[in-house]
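Task: sequence design from structure.
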């Protein structure tokens, strides 16, 4: 079993809870209140800014030219395509780009972003890939799950969101990152394997908390 499959198996209980989360289920059947979705989008927009910084550091740390190039391309795609998608979604709900930029970062968003940035600065490129995978791979899995089991008709206001993350194009991003991690960590030591598991599990748990944050519209209490 390769590294990415082993990590996925280790985190299976967390990922199952994500698929069963009321926010995710609400996306699938269209019942999610729109104020929760827009709160989530605004926080995800801020998160993607920090996510892009992590991709930039990964590009700098990659030992191979192909890896440097691909991480740089992912950063560009995040800063342009995915963030523009968020601006477009938000515009449809009456939220301007200026309002997006003024959004106050929520505790869960801040914690997740700071964790990824710390891994990027302190860890190896393998650890960065393991930290990023629950987002890239996870969203693809959610999108495909909802496309298969949810409502993708025009009646669902989130059908286009599902279509985006269920797409082959988005799936390929996660598949590349999985393959890169597997290639960079073919024969990890026991300590390295444990470290990658810890990183992957922690990011997976942050993913769950991010959905929870969106559903509860969690903000700083003071």
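Answer:
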């Amino acid at each position: 079993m390769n590294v990415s499959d082993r990590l996925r198996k280790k985190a299976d209980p967390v990922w199952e809870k994500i698929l069963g989360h009321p926010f995710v289920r609400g996306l699938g059947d269209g019942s999610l209140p729109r104020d929760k979705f827009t709160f989530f989008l605004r926080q995800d927009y801020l998160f993607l800014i920090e996510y892009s910084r992590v991709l930039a550091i990964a590009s700098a740390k990659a030992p191979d030219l192909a890896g440097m190039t691909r991480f740089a391309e992912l950063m560009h795609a995040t800063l342009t395509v995915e963030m523009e998608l968020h601006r477009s979604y938000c515009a449809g709900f009456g939220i301007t780009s200026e309002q997006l930029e003024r959004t106050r970062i929520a505790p869960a968003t801040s914690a997740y972003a700071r964790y990824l940035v710390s891994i990027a600065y302190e860890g190896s490129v393998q650890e960065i890939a393991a930290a990023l995978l629950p987002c890239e791979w996870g969203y693809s899995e959610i999108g495909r799950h909802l496309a298969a089991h949810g409502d993708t008709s025009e009646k669902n206001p989130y059908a286009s969101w599902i279509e985006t993350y269920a797409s082959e194009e988005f799936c390929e991003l996660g598949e590349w990152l999985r393959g890169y991690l597997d290639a960079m960590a073919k024969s990890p030591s026991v300590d390295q394997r444990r470290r990658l598991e810890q990183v992957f599990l922690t990011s997976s748990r942050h993913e769950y908390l991010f959905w929870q944050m969106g559903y509860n519209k969690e903000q700083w209490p003071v």
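The first helix runs from residue 3 to 10.
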